[in-house]
Write a structure and sequence with these properties.
The chain is an alpha/beta fold and 577 residues long. It has 24 helices and 12 strands. Helices cover 55% and strands 14% of the residues. The structure holds adenosine-5'-triphosphate. Adenosine-5'-triphosphate binds next to strand 4 and helix 14. This is Phosphate import ATP-binding protein PstB.
Length: 577
């Protein structure tokens, strides 16, 4: 039908003796949409007709959007190709006075502009990319939302994003004019102008990419006892690398075609100048502009020229297996989330924390490896002793504490950029520990066997960790946690995101792991608590906004069959929570 309509419109236009390509295309599209709409509503149904017309409109809108792009590409390539040859890119060109013919002659050659573009854009990228990426890391990883400096930087970035490029050129020129005097034209000045345009783009794009990195990955790394700086460099930035590089490429693409700021800051010249600190410099956009605006006498040659241009010392802290908590209060800023917990967790046992949602089980668990402090405002009052050493004592490094008290989270969080093998070795590698190939192989096998995963993955250790099933991923996370040889293993609802078969595999694993580790597990699943734990702690909360408290702590069998507190009995028998 489309062809029929097109021929009809062309015929009418020819009959009227005025064939015009754009009007032929527009009329054909309009008539086709009307015809398909009416025809379909008669032959098919009204719904189909609307569907066909909307599909036609979307296709037309797409073609309309790409038409200018294709047209521009075609024009530049077809006109530029004629002049772009080896001489054009290896020789200096421009307009010169020919004494023989007494005429201004344009000689093709863009070497001065190509070199100028590379130098000016290269310097701008060298300055802007580190500043932009570091500013974004500060905004996302370090500054609290209420931090005045963060607000100021965000505001300035917003303002800078909207600056017209010519203003950036004027700023750079004025700035250098104040320092070196008038005629302060230089390639470096143009680079500074481009930095003003590039930095906000790099900050914005890097910020977005860093925010996309799941918080789980940061926690997974911190829980391995990796310092925050190494976590940012080796986990967060590595995960976001491809997105950040795309942002940088876009920023370079945005400035490489700038004409106005370079024209103002570096002026223009046809002379070859490779010194960015001395005198005017030319870039390809400026060359295209000047060749077009100020042609030599040979306008055709001049225009052809224009088209042609287009990571910690292992200070051993004695953190070992028995955990004694004395009157611990846990806060989120001023909010007291958990109050007055005193508990004695025995080595080589599995202890389950149970209680209704919001009673502070997870919050309390995270104080046992100082992960609670990772949350802004998170702090504690009281003591947590591991084999007699206070985790919160003066001079104790939380990073070292986390190497001895490993953690497995609710959702499996293998590092997506790492293979299965690299995930198991993450604790060692992220902490820059030197480890021989054979030791690494032995550690990978031992940890995966410890996590009951070896047989399932031994033939694909170099495949990404993210490619495993949810249950396998969680066992990989357990392998990763035990690879750093912790003394205690904390598990925050490790099976809540898993199916019953994977849950059974993890429960079996927990029963085996308790021969080597002190295990503390938060669970909502009463059967699971009674199946895997030796001791159970019941937490409760008096009401919303009130702190959670440890109500009863005893042998699991006693908690489930003969608890001493009524609330415990009500909870384990399913009367509330
Ligand atoms: N990041 C946070 N900032 C402020 N308050 C928080 C934060 N995380 C948790 N809380 C509060 O601390 C209290 C205890 O929460 P927590 O998540 O530890 O409870 P929970 O018993 O583990 O609950 P659930 O079983 O639902 O996971 C709740 O009142 C909760 O709102």
């Amino acid at each position: 039908m489309l062809v029929g309509v097109a021929v009809l419109v062309a015929g009418i236009q020819l009959l009227l003796g005025d064939f015009h390509l754009p009007s032929w295309l527009i009329l054909t599209a309009l008539l086709y949409l009307v015809a398909i709409g009416v025809g379909s509503s008669i032959v098919e149904s009204r719904r189909k007709a609307v569907d066909r017309v909307v599909r036609g409109l979307v296709t037309a809108a797409f073609l309309l959007a790409v038409a200018p792009l294709i047209s521009t590409l075609w024009t530049v390539v077809s006109k530029g190709l004629a002049i772009v040859n080896w001489d054009f890119i290896t020789k200096t060109g421009g307009s010169a006075f020919d004494p023989d013919t007494l005429a201004v002659v344009a000689t093709p050659g863009a070497l001065q502009a190509i070199v100028g573009t590379l130098i000016i854009t290269g310097i701008a990228a060298l300055i802007s990319v580190p500043i932009g990426v570091l500013a974004a890391v500060y905004l996302v990883e370090y500054a609290l939302p209420t931090n005045p400096l963060r607000r100021t930087i965000t505001f300035l970035v917003d303002v800078m994003t909207g600056i017209p490029s010519i203003v950036a050129g004027l700023f750079a020129f004025s700035f250098f004019a104040l320092i070196v005097g008038p005629k302060a034209f230089s390639g470096f000045s143009a680079s500074i102008a481009l930095c003003v345009l590039m930095i906000p783009i790099v900050i914005r794009s890097t910020e977005e990419m860093l925010r996309l990195v799941p918080a789980d990955l940061r926690e997974a790394s911190l829980a391995l006892g990796v310092p925050r700086s190494a976590t940012i460099i080796k986990v967060v930035l590595r995960t976001a690398a491809s997105g950040i590089i795309t942002g940088v490429v876009l920023a370079v693409a945005r400035v490489v075609g700038e004409t106005a700021p370079i024209f103002i800051a570096a002026s223009f010249t046809d002379n070859f100048n490779s010194n960015p600190f001395d005198g005017p410099m030319q870039t390809l956009p400026v060359m295209a502009y000047t060749a077009y605006s100020f042609p030599g006498q040979d306008i055709d040659a001049s225009q052809a020229q224009a088209w042609g241009a287009a990571r910690v010392d292992p200070r051993k802290v004695s953190v070992s297996k028995r955990i004694e908590v004395e009157d611990l209060n846990v806060y989120y800023s001023d909010f007291l989330a958990v109050e007055g917990v005193s508990i004695d967790i025995q080595p080589r046992t599995v202890t389950a924390f149970i209680g209704p949602s919001g009673c502070g089980k997870s919050t309390f668990l995270r104080t046992l490896n100082r992960m609670h402090e990772v949350i802004p405002g998170g702090h504690v009052k009281g003591r947590v002793l591991v084999d007699g050493d206070d985790l919160y004592g003066p001079g104790v490094d939380p990073v070292l504490v986390r190497r001895h008290v490993g953690m497995v989270f609710q959702r499996p969080n293998p590092f997506p950029t790492m293979s299965i093998r690299e995930n198991v070795l993450a604790g060692a590698r992220l902490n820059n520990k030197r480890i021989s190939r054979s030791d690494a192989d032995a550690l990978v096998e031992k940890s995966l066997q410890g996590a009951n995963l070896w047989n399932e993955v031994k033939d694909r250790l170099d495949k990404p960790g993210g490619g495993l099933s949810g249950g396998q991923q969680q066992r990989l996370c357990i392998a990763r946690a035990i690879a750093v040889s912790p003394d205690v293993l904390l598990m925050d609802e490790p099976c809540s995101a898993l199916d019953p078969i994977s849950t059974f595999a993890i429960e079996e694993l927990i029963s085996e792991l308790k021969n080597e580790y002190t295990i503390v597990i938060v669970t909502h699943n009463m059967q699971q608590a009674s199946r895997v734990s030796d001791k159970t702690a019941f937490f409760n909360i008096a009401g919303t906004g009130k702190p959670g408290k440890l109500i009863e702590y005893n042998d699991t069998a006693t908690i489930f069959t003969a608890p001493t507190v009524q609330a415990t009995e009500d909870y384990v028998s399913g009367r509330f929570g």
